[in-house]
Specification:
- This protein is α+β, with helices and mostly antiparallel strands and 138 residues long.
- It is built from 7 helices and 4 strands.
- Strands 2-3-1-4 form a 4-stranded antiparallel β-sheet.
- The longest helix is centred in the last third of the chain and has 11 residues.
- The chain binds adenosine-3',5'-cyclic-monophosphate.
- Adenosine-3',5'-cyclic-monophosphate binds next to loops.
Length: 138
């Protein structure tokens, strides 16, 4: 069993895709071990994406991520990190395979509907950024 962090970004929430995204996770045997809706401040978005500090898109990305509510979730299952990334598709929707969340719903590389942890160490940091042990079921 593995855990990963998933975010339905402000564009996904605004487009009414919370149910659609969660249905895809549950249909792929990813269980939701924790979930909440939050509206990040600019500082909180900067902290979450600190690894991208200094990149050209950092300011715009953190503006976007703090512009509206997100749904943050912990997904749990066999190879949850890889499975979630497969369901999401490539970061840039132009490169994402047909049938993936980003290919079907994303507007562009920044407004790409969902975020998912990319490695076990990242998942530990990202889960701890949003959830305390008491908030995690399972
Ligand atoms: P995400 O999986 O949340 O991880 C970092 C985010 O930065 C990524 O999805 C995109 O939304 C965004 N991103 C990555 N590369 C670029 C880029 N070249 N231009 C704009 N945004 C980017």
């Amino acid at each position: 069993m593995e855990r990963t962090l998933s975010i339905i970004k402000p564009d996904g929430v605004a487009k009414g895709l919370i149910g659609e995204v969660i249905k895809r996770f549950e249909s792929a045997d990813l269980k939701i071990a924790a979930m909440k809706m939050i509206h990040m401040s600019k500082k909180e978005a900067e902290g979450f994406y600190a690894v991208h500090q200094g990149k050209a898109f950092y300011g715009s990305l953190t503006d976007f991520m703090s512009a509206g509510p997100c749904v943050v979730m912990i997904l749990e299952g066999l190879q949850a990190i890889a499975k979630n990334r497969e369901l999401m598709g490539a970061t840039n929707p132009k490169d994402a395979l047909p049938g993936t969340i980003r290919r079907e719903f994303a507007s562009n590389i920044e407004r790409n509907i969902v975020h998912g942890s990319d490695a076990p160490e990242t998942a530990v940091f990202e889960i701890g950024y949003f959830f305390s042990a008491l908030e995690i079921c399972g």
